[in-house]
Design goal:
about 525 residues, alpha+beta, Alpha-Beta Plaits, 2 domains, about 25% strand, globular
Length: about 525
Protein backbone atom coordinates (compact mmCIF):
# COMPACT_ATOMS: atom_id res chain seq x y z
CA UNK A 1 0.00 0.00 0.00
CA UNK A 2 1.35 3.40 -1.00
CA UNK A 3 1.91 5.73 1.92
CA UNK A 4 0.25 9.12 1.50
CA UNK A 5 2.40 12.18 2.12
CA UNK A 6 0.53 14.96 3.96
CA UNK A 7 1.15 18.53 2.81
CA UNK A 8 4.01 20.12 4.72
CA UNK A 9 3.22 22.77 7.29
CA UNK A 10 5.13 25.55 8.97
CA UNK A 11 4.07 26.86 12.35
CA UNK A 12 4.22 30.35 13.82
CA UNK A 13 2.69 31.70 17.01
CA UNK A 14 0.81 29.65 19.60
CA UNK A 15 -2.73 30.75 20.36
CA UNK A 16 -5.02 30.49 23.39
CA UNK A 17 -8.73 31.33 23.35
CA UNK A 18 -9.70 31.56 27.03
CA UNK A 19 -13.48 31.71 27.66
CA UNK A 20 -14.65 32.83 31.11
CA UNK A 21 -18.04 33.19 32.78
CA UNK A 22 -18.68 35.63 35.66
CA UNK A 23 -20.26 34.44 38.91
CA UNK A 24 -22.68 37.35 38.99
CA UNK A 25 -24.25 36.36 42.32
CA UNK A 26 -20.85 36.31 44.01
CA UNK A 27 -19.95 39.60 42.33
CA UNK A 28 -23.07 41.35 43.58
CA UNK A 29 -22.59 40.03 47.13
CA UNK A 30 -18.88 40.92 47.34
CA UNK A 31 -17.79 43.97 49.40
CA UNK A 32 -16.99 47.11 47.44
CA UNK A 33 -13.33 46.90 48.46
CA UNK A 34 -13.10 43.33 47.13
CA UNK A 35 -14.70 44.31 43.81
CA UNK A 36 -12.38 47.27 43.41
CA UNK A 37 -9.34 45.08 43.98
CA UNK A 38 -10.62 42.52 41.46
CA UNK A 39 -11.14 45.25 38.85
CA UNK A 40 -7.73 46.78 39.50
CA UNK A 41 -5.88 43.46 39.23
CA UNK A 42 -7.96 42.42 36.21
CA UNK A 43 -7.18 45.66 34.39
CA UNK A 44 -3.49 45.36 35.27
CA UNK A 45 -3.36 41.79 33.95
CA UNK A 46 -5.24 42.48 30.70
CA UNK A 47 -3.36 45.68 29.87
CA UNK A 48 -0.05 43.96 30.57
CA UNK A 49 -1.08 41.20 28.17
CA UNK A 50 -1.92 43.65 25.41
CA UNK A 51 1.39 45.44 26.01
CA UNK A 52 3.16 42.06 25.82
CA UNK A 53 4.93 42.68 29.11
CA UNK A 54 5.02 38.94 29.79
CA UNK A 55 7.35 38.15 26.89
CA UNK A 56 10.96 38.23 28.00
CA UNK A 57 13.62 40.25 26.22
CA UNK A 58 15.40 37.02 25.28
CA UNK A 59 12.29 35.72 23.55
CA UNK A 60 11.67 39.06 21.90
CA UNK A 61 15.14 39.08 20.41
CA UNK A 62 14.84 35.48 19.26
CA UNK A 63 11.42 36.06 17.73
CA UNK A 64 12.20 38.38 14.81
CA UNK A 65 8.56 38.71 13.87
CA UNK A 66 7.56 40.26 17.19
CA UNK A 67 6.22 39.16 20.53
CA UNK A 68 2.59 38.28 19.77
CA UNK A 69 -0.71 39.97 20.57
CA UNK A 70 -3.66 39.89 23.00
CA UNK A 71 -7.25 41.16 23.04
CA UNK A 72 -10.26 41.22 25.38
CA UNK A 73 -13.87 40.56 24.30
CA UNK A 74 -17.33 40.52 25.86
CA UNK A 75 -19.07 37.33 24.72
CA UNK A 76 -22.77 37.51 23.85
CA UNK A 77 -25.15 34.77 24.94
CA UNK A 78 -24.94 32.11 27.63
CA UNK A 79 -21.77 30.30 26.52
CA UNK A 80 -19.37 32.71 28.25
CA UNK A 81 -19.05 36.31 29.43
CA UNK A 82 -15.44 37.10 28.59
CA UNK A 83 -12.94 35.93 25.99
CA UNK A 84 -9.20 36.54 26.26
CA UNK A 85 -7.27 35.83 23.05
CA UNK A 86 -3.48 35.47 23.31
CA UNK A 87 -0.88 34.92 20.56
CA UNK A 88 2.64 34.19 21.77
CA UNK A 89 5.95 32.85 20.42
CA UNK A 90 5.88 29.70 22.59
CA UNK A 91 3.49 27.35 24.34
CA UNK A 92 5.33 28.17 27.58
CA UNK A 93 4.26 31.81 27.20
CA UNK A 94 0.60 30.75 27.10
CA UNK A 95 1.12 28.56 30.17
CA UNK A 96 2.47 31.55 32.08
CA UNK A 97 -0.46 33.74 31.03
CA UNK A 98 -2.98 31.16 32.24
CA UNK A 99 -1.38 30.90 35.67
CA UNK A 100 -0.87 34.64 36.00
CA UNK A 101 -4.59 35.22 35.54
CA UNK A 102 -5.44 32.64 38.21
CA UNK A 103 -3.32 34.70 40.58
CA UNK A 104 -5.53 37.79 40.21
CA UNK A 105 -8.43 38.70 42.47
CA UNK A 106 -10.66 38.78 39.39
CA UNK A 107 -10.12 35.06 38.77
CA UNK A 108 -12.04 34.25 41.98
CA UNK A 109 -15.21 35.60 40.32
CA UNK A 110 -14.77 33.69 37.06
CA UNK A 111 -15.05 30.12 35.87
CA UNK A 112 -13.46 28.85 32.67
CA UNK A 113 -16.29 27.58 30.46
CA UNK A 114 -14.08 26.60 27.53
CA UNK A 115 -10.68 27.13 25.97
CA UNK A 116 -8.90 26.37 22.73
CA UNK A 117 -5.18 25.81 22.14
CA UNK A 118 -3.73 26.00 18.63
CA UNK A 119 -0.92 27.42 16.49
CA UNK A 120 -0.85 29.59 13.37
CA UNK A 121 0.27 27.65 10.31
CA UNK A 122 0.63 27.60 6.54
CA UNK A 123 0.83 24.54 4.34
CA UNK A 124 1.84 23.28 0.94
CA UNK A 125 -1.60 24.16 -0.39
CA UNK A 126 -0.48 27.79 -0.41
CA UNK A 127 2.95 27.31 -2.00
CA UNK A 128 4.68 24.02 -2.67
CA UNK A 129 7.89 25.84 -3.60
CA UNK A 130 7.98 27.51 -0.20
CA UNK A 131 8.72 24.12 1.34
CA UNK A 132 11.09 22.91 -1.40
CA UNK A 133 14.67 23.73 -0.44
CA UNK A 134 15.82 23.25 -4.02
CA UNK A 135 13.16 25.50 -5.56
CA UNK A 136 14.07 29.03 -6.56
CA UNK A 137 11.06 31.00 -5.41
CA UNK A 138 10.87 34.42 -7.01
CA UNK A 139 9.80 36.82 -4.26
CA UNK A 140 6.57 38.41 -5.44
CA UNK A 141 5.23 39.05 -1.98
CA UNK A 142 4.28 35.46 -1.17
CA UNK A 143 7.03 35.13 1.45
CA UNK A 144 5.85 38.26 3.18
CA UNK A 145 2.25 37.12 2.99
CA UNK A 146 3.16 33.77 4.54
CA UNK A 147 4.92 35.55 7.39
CA UNK A 148 1.81 37.64 7.97
CA UNK A 149 -0.13 34.40 8.29
CA UNK A 150 2.35 32.91 10.74
CA UNK A 151 2.74 36.08 12.84
CA UNK A 152 -0.58 37.97 12.56
CA UNK A 153 -1.82 40.93 14.52
CA UNK A 154 -5.27 40.84 16.09
CA UNK A 155 -7.37 43.36 14.14
CA UNK A 156 -9.06 46.24 15.95
CA UNK A 157 -12.46 45.10 14.64
CA UNK A 158 -15.48 45.47 16.86
CA UNK A 159 -16.77 41.91 16.50
CA UNK A 160 -15.13 38.52 16.82
CA UNK A 161 -16.43 35.07 15.92
CA UNK A 162 -14.69 31.84 16.91
CA UNK A 163 -15.42 28.24 16.02
CA UNK A 164 -13.43 25.00 15.74
CA UNK A 165 -13.75 22.71 12.72
CA UNK A 166 -12.69 19.40 11.22
CA UNK A 167 -12.54 17.89 7.76
CA UNK A 168 -15.02 15.04 7.37
CA UNK A 169 -13.78 11.45 7.37
CA UNK A 170 -17.03 9.63 6.53
CA UNK A 171 -17.59 6.48 4.47
CA UNK A 172 -18.88 8.51 1.50
CA UNK A 173 -17.06 11.82 1.89
CA UNK A 174 -13.55 11.49 3.26
CA UNK A 175 -11.41 14.61 2.78
CA UNK A 176 -8.20 12.75 3.46
CA UNK A 177 -8.88 10.18 0.74
CA UNK A 178 -8.99 12.87 -1.96
CA UNK A 179 -5.91 13.39 -4.15
CA UNK A 180 -3.83 16.45 -3.28
CA UNK A 181 -4.77 18.32 -6.47
CA UNK A 182 -8.48 17.86 -5.81
CA UNK A 183 -8.14 19.10 -2.24
CA UNK A 184 -6.13 22.09 -3.43
CA UNK A 185 -8.80 22.89 -6.03
CA UNK A 186 -11.53 22.78 -3.39
CA UNK A 187 -9.57 25.14 -1.15
CA UNK A 188 -8.82 27.54 -3.96
CA UNK A 189 -12.51 27.82 -4.88
CA UNK A 190 -13.36 28.21 -1.21
CA UNK A 191 -10.85 31.02 -0.89
CA UNK A 192 -12.32 32.83 -3.91
CA UNK A 193 -15.51 33.34 -1.92
CA UNK A 194 -13.59 34.77 0.98
CA UNK A 195 -11.70 37.20 -1.23
CA UNK A 196 -15.00 38.84 -2.07
CA UNK A 197 -15.11 39.87 1.60
CA UNK A 198 -11.66 41.46 1.65
CA UNK A 199 -11.89 44.65 3.65
CA UNK A 200 -14.98 43.41 5.47
CA UNK A 201 -13.90 40.21 7.24
CA UNK A 202 -10.43 39.31 8.47
CA UNK A 203 -9.35 35.90 9.73
CA UNK A 204 -6.78 34.12 11.82
CA UNK A 205 -6.70 30.39 11.10
CA UNK A 206 -4.86 28.05 13.46
CA UNK A 207 -4.04 24.35 13.47
CA UNK A 208 -4.85 22.26 16.54
CA UNK A 209 -4.26 18.60 15.66
CA UNK A 210 -2.97 17.08 18.89
CA UNK A 211 -3.50 20.34 20.81
CA UNK A 212 -7.29 20.33 21.18
CA UNK A 213 -10.47 18.44 20.26
CA UNK A 214 -10.70 19.67 16.65
CA UNK A 215 -8.31 20.10 13.74
CA UNK A 216 -8.50 23.87 13.28
CA UNK A 217 -9.68 26.99 15.00
CA UNK A 218 -11.22 29.80 12.95
CA UNK A 219 -11.33 33.33 14.34
CA UNK A 220 -13.16 35.95 12.25
CA UNK A 221 -13.11 39.71 12.78
CA UNK A 222 -15.42 42.37 11.33
CA UNK A 223 -16.94 45.75 12.11
CA UNK A 224 -20.35 44.66 10.79
CA UNK A 225 -21.58 41.38 12.34
CA UNK A 226 -23.73 40.61 9.29
CA UNK A 227 -20.58 40.44 7.15
CA UNK A 228 -19.48 37.41 9.19
CA UNK A 229 -22.94 35.86 8.88
CA UNK A 230 -23.09 36.50 5.12
CA UNK A 231 -19.63 35.02 4.57
CA UNK A 232 -20.35 31.84 6.50
CA UNK A 233 -23.79 31.48 4.90
CA UNK A 234 -22.38 31.76 1.39
CA UNK A 235 -19.69 29.23 2.20
CA UNK A 236 -22.25 26.70 3.36
CA UNK A 237 -23.04 26.11 -0.32
CA UNK A 238 -19.41 25.51 -1.30
CA UNK A 239 -18.53 21.76 -1.55
CA UNK A 240 -15.48 22.24 0.66
CA UNK A 241 -17.97 23.05 3.42
CA UNK A 242 -21.16 21.21 2.43
CA UNK A 243 -19.41 17.88 1.77
CA UNK A 244 -16.27 17.96 3.84
CA UNK A 245 -16.58 20.31 6.84
CA UNK A 246 -17.80 19.67 10.37
CA UNK A 247 -18.03 22.40 13.01
CA UNK A 248 -17.94 22.82 16.75
CA UNK A 249 -19.70 25.53 18.77
CA UNK A 250 -19.78 29.10 17.51
CA UNK A 251 -19.02 31.96 19.92
CA UNK A 252 -19.54 35.64 19.20
CA UNK A 253 -18.17 38.66 21.03
CA UNK A 254 -17.38 42.37 21.01
CA UNK A 255 -14.01 43.88 21.81
CA UNK A 256 -13.44 46.37 24.60
CA UNK A 257 -10.45 48.07 26.16
CA UNK A 258 -9.12 46.36 29.32
CA UNK A 259 -9.36 49.71 31.11
CA UNK A 260 -13.16 49.47 30.70
CA UNK A 261 -13.43 46.26 32.74
CA UNK A 262 -15.07 48.11 35.64
CA UNK A 263 -17.71 49.59 33.35
CA UNK A 264 -18.33 46.15 31.84
CA UNK A 265 -18.88 44.59 35.27
CA UNK A 266 -21.16 47.49 36.22
CA UNK A 267 -23.44 46.86 33.25
CA UNK A 268 -22.40 50.04 31.48
CA UNK A 269 -21.66 50.41 27.75
CA UNK A 270 -18.06 49.59 26.88
CA UNK A 271 -15.92 50.01 23.78
CA UNK A 272 -12.30 50.08 22.69
CA UNK A 273 -12.19 53.73 23.70
CA UNK A 274 -11.01 54.07 27.27
CA UNK A 275 -13.86 55.39 29.44
CA UNK A 276 -13.58 58.26 31.90
CA UNK A 277 -13.37 55.94 34.89
CA UNK A 278 -17.05 55.27 35.60
CA UNK A 279 -18.06 51.87 36.87
CA UNK A 280 -16.80 50.30 40.06
CA UNK A 281 -18.31 46.89 39.52
CA UNK A 282 -21.32 47.34 41.80
CA UNK A 283 -23.99 46.75 39.16
CA UNK A 284 -25.90 43.58 38.43
CA UNK A 285 -26.44 41.60 35.26
CA UNK A 286 -24.22 41.37 32.22
CA UNK A 287 -24.29 44.61 30.32
CA UNK A 288 -21.90 43.85 27.47
CA UNK A 289 -22.54 47.29 26.07
CA UNK A 290 -21.13 48.36 22.72
CA UNK A 291 -17.60 48.13 21.43
CA UNK A 292 -15.55 49.15 18.44
CA UNK A 293 -13.22 47.02 16.44
CA UNK A 294 -11.95 45.17 13.08
CA UNK A 295 -11.12 42.15 11.21
CA UNK A 296 -9.61 35.32 7.85
CA UNK A 297 -7.57 31.82 5.39
CA UNK A 298 -6.79 28.41 6.77
CA UNK A 299 -3.41 27.04 7.60
CA UNK A 300 -2.87 23.33 7.31
CA UNK A 301 -5.63 21.73 5.25
CA UNK A 302 -7.51 24.97 4.85
CA UNK A 303 -5.22 27.43 3.12
CA UNK A 304 -7.67 29.56 1.22
CA UNK A 305 -10.51 28.65 3.59
CA UNK A 306 -12.13 32.04 3.71
CA UNK A 307 -9.60 33.93 1.69
CA UNK A 308 -9.97 37.14 3.65
CA UNK A 309 -7.15 39.33 4.77
CA UNK A 310 -4.56 38.09 7.21
CA UNK A 311 -2.66 40.76 9.08
CA UNK A 312 1.04 40.77 9.61
CA UNK A 313 4.13 42.88 10.01
CA UNK A 314 6.27 43.00 6.90
CA UNK A 315 5.23 43.91 3.38
CA UNK A 316 7.91 45.73 1.40
CA UNK A 317 6.29 49.15 1.46
CA UNK A 318 7.79 51.92 -0.54
CA UNK A 319 9.54 53.62 2.30
CA UNK A 320 11.62 50.48 2.52
CA UNK A 321 11.66 47.57 4.92
CA UNK A 322 15.24 48.21 5.85
CA UNK A 323 16.85 46.76 8.96
CA UNK A 324 17.29 48.93 12.01
CA UNK A 325 20.90 49.48 11.06
CA UNK A 326 19.75 51.40 7.99
CA UNK A 327 17.44 53.76 9.86
CA UNK A 328 20.12 56.32 10.70
CA UNK A 329 21.23 56.42 7.06
CA UNK A 330 17.67 57.16 5.99
CA UNK A 331 17.43 59.96 8.55
CA UNK A 332 20.71 61.43 7.26
CA UNK A 333 19.43 61.43 3.69
CA UNK A 334 16.15 63.04 4.66
CA UNK A 335 17.98 65.67 6.65
CA UNK A 336 20.24 66.58 3.74
CA UNK A 337 17.33 66.77 1.33
CA UNK A 338 15.30 68.85 3.77
CA UNK A 339 18.14 71.38 3.88
CA UNK A 340 17.84 71.60 0.09
CA UNK A 341 14.12 72.31 0.40
CA UNK A 342 13.10 68.86 -0.79
CA UNK A 343 10.39 67.09 1.21
CA UNK A 344 11.69 63.60 2.01
CA UNK A 345 8.98 62.02 4.11
CA UNK A 346 8.60 61.56 7.83
CA UNK A 347 11.35 60.14 10.07
CA UNK A 348 10.35 56.53 9.47
CA UNK A 349 9.60 56.92 5.78
CA UNK A 350 6.60 58.32 4.00
CA UNK A 351 3.45 59.60 5.65
CA UNK A 352 1.64 56.77 3.89
CA UNK A 353 2.62 53.11 3.62
CA UNK A 354 2.76 51.60 0.17
CA UNK A 355 3.20 48.34 -1.66
CA UNK A 356 4.90 48.65 -5.06
CA UNK A 357 4.79 45.68 -7.42
CA UNK A 358 5.89 45.31 -11.03
CA UNK A 359 4.09 43.12 -13.57
CA UNK A 360 4.90 41.98 -17.11
CA UNK A 361 1.21 41.39 -17.83
CA UNK A 362 -0.62 43.26 -20.58
CA UNK A 363 -1.61 46.63 -18.99
CA UNK A 364 -5.33 46.33 -19.82
CA UNK A 365 -5.54 42.92 -18.18
CA UNK A 366 -3.58 44.12 -15.16
CA UNK A 367 -5.77 47.22 -14.80
CA UNK A 368 -8.93 45.09 -14.83
CA UNK A 369 -7.56 42.88 -12.05
CA UNK A 370 -6.46 45.87 -9.97
CA UNK A 371 -9.86 47.53 -10.38
CA UNK A 372 -11.50 44.48 -8.85
CA UNK A 373 -9.10 44.47 -5.90
CA UNK A 374 -9.50 48.19 -5.39
CA UNK A 375 -13.26 47.84 -4.98
CA UNK A 376 -12.58 45.55 -2.02
CA UNK A 377 -9.78 47.73 -0.66
CA UNK A 378 -12.15 50.69 -0.56
CA UNK A 379 -14.01 49.01 2.28
CA UNK A 380 -11.01 49.86 4.48
CA UNK A 381 -10.93 53.33 6.00
CA UNK A 382 -7.13 53.09 5.87
CA UNK A 383 -7.02 52.70 2.08
CA UNK A 384 -5.63 55.81 0.38
CA UNK A 385 -5.47 54.66 -3.23
CA UNK A 386 -4.40 51.83 -5.50
CA UNK A 387 -3.37 52.63 -9.06
CA UNK A 388 -1.63 51.24 -12.13
CA UNK A 389 1.36 53.22 -13.45
CA UNK A 390 2.59 52.67 -16.99
CA UNK A 391 6.15 53.42 -18.00
CA UNK A 392 7.12 55.81 -20.77
CA UNK A 393 9.49 53.03 -21.87
CA UNK A 394 7.47 50.29 -23.66
CA UNK A 395 10.12 47.73 -22.66
CA UNK A 396 9.62 48.35 -18.92
CA UNK A 397 7.16 46.60 -16.65
CA UNK A 398 3.94 48.18 -15.38
CA UNK A 399 3.85 49.21 -11.73
CA UNK A 400 1.02 48.77 -9.24
CA UNK A 401 1.13 51.15 -6.29
CA UNK A 402 -1.16 50.65 -3.30
CA UNK A 403 -1.12 53.32 -0.59
CA UNK A 404 -2.37 52.84 2.98
CA UNK A 405 -2.45 54.80 6.21
CA UNK A 406 -1.06 51.93 8.30
CA UNK A 407 1.72 49.39 7.94
CA UNK A 408 -0.62 46.54 8.86
CA UNK A 409 -3.16 47.41 6.17
CA UNK A 410 -0.42 47.66 3.54
CA UNK A 411 0.83 44.23 4.62
CA UNK A 412 -2.63 42.79 4.12
CA UNK A 413 -2.88 44.33 0.66
CA UNK A 414 0.51 42.87 -0.31
CA UNK A 415 -0.87 39.35 0.05
CA UNK A 416 -3.64 40.03 -2.45
CA UNK A 417 -1.52 42.07 -4.84
CA UNK A 418 1.03 39.25 -5.02
CA UNK A 419 -1.66 37.20 -6.82
CA UNK A 420 -1.87 39.66 -9.72
CA UNK A 421 -0.89 38.21 -13.12
CA UNK A 422 2.79 37.99 -14.07
CA UNK A 423 4.16 39.83 -11.07
CA UNK A 424 7.91 39.84 -11.60
CA UNK A 425 9.17 41.53 -8.47
CA UNK A 426 8.35 43.77 -5.57
CA UNK A 427 10.05 47.14 -5.29
CA UNK A 428 13.24 46.74 -3.33
CA UNK A 429 13.42 42.98 -3.84
CA UNK A 430 14.98 42.82 -7.29
CA UNK A 431 18.41 44.31 -6.56
CA UNK A 432 19.62 43.24 -3.14
CA UNK A 433 23.08 44.70 -3.65
CA UNK A 434 21.95 48.21 -4.52
CA UNK A 435 20.61 51.26 -2.77
CA UNK A 436 17.40 52.66 -4.22
CA UNK A 437 15.51 55.91 -4.07
CA UNK A 438 12.01 56.47 -5.34
CA UNK A 439 10.35 59.82 -5.96
CA UNK A 440 6.59 59.49 -5.80
CA UNK A 441 3.54 61.70 -6.31
CA UNK A 442 4.88 64.21 -8.76
CA UNK A 443 1.50 65.77 -9.44
CA UNK A 444 2.06 67.92 -12.51
CA UNK A 445 -0.03 70.89 -13.53
CA UNK A 446 -1.85 69.78 -16.74
CA UNK A 447 -0.47 72.65 -18.80
CA UNK A 448 3.10 71.65 -17.88
CA UNK A 449 2.90 67.89 -18.39
CA UNK A 450 4.86 67.88 -21.64
CA UNK A 451 7.46 70.15 -20.05
CA UNK A 452 7.81 67.74 -17.13
CA UNK A 453 8.27 64.73 -19.42
CA UNK A 454 10.80 66.63 -21.51
CA UNK A 455 12.76 67.72 -18.45
CA UNK A 456 12.75 64.13 -17.16
CA UNK A 457 14.36 63.01 -20.42
CA UNK A 458 17.05 65.68 -20.05
CA UNK A 459 17.71 64.72 -16.42
CA UNK A 460 17.72 61.08 -17.45
CA UNK A 461 20.56 61.83 -19.83
CA UNK A 462 22.53 63.42 -16.98
CA UNK A 463 21.79 60.45 -14.72
CA UNK A 464 23.00 58.00 -17.33
CA UNK A 465 26.46 59.54 -17.19
CA UNK A 466 26.72 59.54 -13.40
CA UNK A 467 28.74 56.97 -11.48
CA UNK A 468 26.65 54.37 -9.68
CA UNK A 469 23.43 55.05 -11.57
CA UNK A 470 21.61 51.91 -12.66
CA UNK A 471 18.19 52.88 -13.93
CA UNK A 472 15.57 55.59 -13.66
CA UNK A 473 12.07 55.20 -15.04
CA UNK A 474 9.11 57.58 -15.39
CA UNK A 475 5.63 56.11 -15.02
CA UNK A 476 2.21 57.75 -15.21
CA UNK A 477 -1.02 56.85 -13.48
CA UNK A 478 -3.23 55.14 -16.04
CA UNK A 479 -6.26 57.06 -14.77
CA UNK A 480 -4.56 60.41 -14.27
CA UNK A 481 -1.69 61.18 -16.62
CA UNK A 482 -0.64 64.11 -14.44
CA UNK A 483 0.09 61.79 -11.49
CA UNK A 484 3.69 60.80 -12.18
CA UNK A 485 5.84 58.18 -10.48
CA UNK A 486 9.64 58.09 -10.73
CA UNK A 487 11.72 55.07 -9.69
CA UNK A 488 15.51 55.32 -9.55
CA UNK A 489 18.15 52.80 -8.50
CA UNK A 490 21.75 53.38 -7.48
CA UNK A 491 24.75 51.30 -6.46
CA UNK A 492 25.05 53.11 -3.13
CA UNK A 493 23.67 55.88 -1.00
CA UNK A 494 26.66 58.09 -1.77
CA UNK A 495 26.10 57.70 -5.51
CA UNK A 496 22.51 58.88 -5.14
CA UNK A 497 23.47 61.74 -2.82
CA UNK A 498 26.05 62.92 -5.34
CA UNK A 499 23.17 63.57 -7.72
CA UNK A 500 21.01 65.20 -5.04
CA UNK A 501 23.89 67.58 -4.27
CA UNK A 502 24.46 68.44 -7.93
CA UNK A 503 23.55 71.73 -9.61
CA UNK A 504 21.38 69.80 -12.06
CA UNK A 505 19.20 68.48 -9.26
CA UNK A 506 18.98 71.90 -7.56
CA UNK A 507 17.88 73.52 -10.81
CA UNK A 508 15.31 70.77 -11.37
CA UNK A 509 13.87 71.25 -7.88
CA UNK A 510 13.62 75.00 -8.38
CA UNK A 511 12.01 74.52 -11.79
CA UNK A 512 9.56 72.03 -10.33
CA UNK A 513 8.06 74.65 -8.02
CA UNK A 514 6.35 76.20 -11.04
CA UNK A 515 5.17 73.06 -12.85
CA UNK A 516 4.04 70.83 -9.98
CA UNK A 517 0.61 71.09 -8.37
CA UNK A 518 2.09 70.20 -4.96
CA UNK A 519 5.48 69.40 -3.54
CA UNK A 520 6.94 66.00 -4.41
CA UNK A 521 7.58 63.41 -1.75
CA UNK A 522 10.67 61.25 -1.93
CA UNK A 523 10.70 57.74 -0.53
CA UNK A 524 13.68 55.43 -0.09
CA UNK A 525 14.16 51.76 -0.83
CA UNK A 526 17.16 50.16 0.87
Amino acid sequence: MERRQPPQTEEGWYVLHDFRSIDWDAWRDAPERTRERAIEEGVDYLTACERLEDVSEREAEAESEGKGDSATYAVLGHKADLLFVHLRPSMADLDVLERQFEGTALAAFTERTDSYVSVTEVSGYMSQDYFDEDAEVEDTGIARYIQSRLHPEIPDSEYVNFYPMDKRRGPEDNWYDLPFDERAEHLSAHGDIGRDYAGKVTQIITGSVGFDDHEWGVTLFADDPTDIKDLLYEMRFDPSTSRFAEFGRFRFGRRFAPENLGAYLAGEPVSQEVSDGHGHGHGSGHGHGSAHGHGHTHGGESDGHHGGASHGHEHGHDHGSEAESETDHGDDVRGELEEMGVYAGKPHGEDVHAVVLYSAAEPDELFEEVTGLRANFDHYDTHVKTAVYESQDPESETAVVSLWETDRAANTAAGFLADLPEVVRQAGDDETDSWGTMGMFYTVKPEHREDFVGTFEEVGGVLGEMDGHRKTDLLANRENENDMFIASRWDSREDAMAFFRSDDFSQTVEWGRDVLADRPRHVFLA
